[in-house]
Design goal:
Layout (H helix, E strand, L loop, with lengths): L1 H26 L5 H21 L3 H10 L6 H25 L6 H21 L6 H8 L2
């Protein structure tokens, strides 16, 4: 069962991201704007991850470019769920409970990811999985 979760996390994440966007007006109606912006980082990232990881595109792309099987399905899962979703969740929790500036952790993560996609595309002169949503959703 865990193997299927590792292989298919991106599809549940995409649907959860759409649901979060649909529920945003209900969930955040009384929140200050910085918290809303931090919250929106997670569904934006989940939608981006669908473009990036559907059909295992990003992992296969990276491994093809490196020339070996350096990125495993488990590594992709760990990087994206506890790594990305966890970081954004902790950022939101800290921004809500301690100081709103902790929300910048999520913002910087998104901008950094977008910049890396664009820089790689310029250097390689080719599309990389996730580039479209990185530009559309992550870069101001």
């Amino acid at each position: 069962m865990f193997g299927r979760l590792i292989a298919n996390w991106v599809y549940g994440g995409f649907l959860a991201g759409l649901l979060m966007l649909f529920l945003t007006p209900v969930l955040v109606h009384s929140w200050p704007v910085p918290l809303v912006a931090t919250f929106l980082c997670l569904p934006a990232y989940m939608i981006h991850q669908y473009e990036e990881h559907d059909n295992d595109r990003f992992r296969l792309y990276v491994n093809q470019k490196i020339g070996r099987d350096a990125l495993s399905p488990l590594a992709v899962f760990v990087i994206n769920l506890p790594g990305v979703w966890g970081t954004v969740g902790i950022s939101l929790a800290l921004a809500a409970s301690m100081r709103v500036g902790f929300g910048l952790i999520a913002m910087y993560l998104i901008v950094l990811n977008g910049a890396i996609h664009v820089i790689h595309a310029v250097i390689a002169r080719e599309y990389n999985p996730g580039l479209g949503t990185a530009v559309a959703l992550f870069l101001p």
